[in-house]
Specification:
This protein is mainly beta and 58 residues long. It has no helices and six strands. The protein has a two-stranded antiparallel sheet with strand order 1-4. The N and C termini lie far apart (29 Å).
Length: 58
């Protein structure tokens, strides 16, 4: 891990998040990488398609 990368606090470095129904999906903070760069631009994050329960659809 370089000096400009930090473990993602949202997914604890796993790259996946889990909702209350145990659905696992790619972390939207680190984009599934598990690490967040200190200089990463947050404006580039695109919101994906979701269903009526706010679950991400691929």
């Amino acid at each position: 891990m370089g000096s400009q990368q930090f473990r993602c606090k949202a997914c604890d470095g796993e790259g996946l998040l889990m909702d209350d129904e145990s659905w696992r999906y790619t972390c939207t903070v680190c984009r599934g990488d598990g690490f967040v760069s200190k200089y990463e631009n947050q404006d580039e994050v695109a919101i994906g398609h979701v269903d009526e329960n706010k679950r991400y659809l691929d």
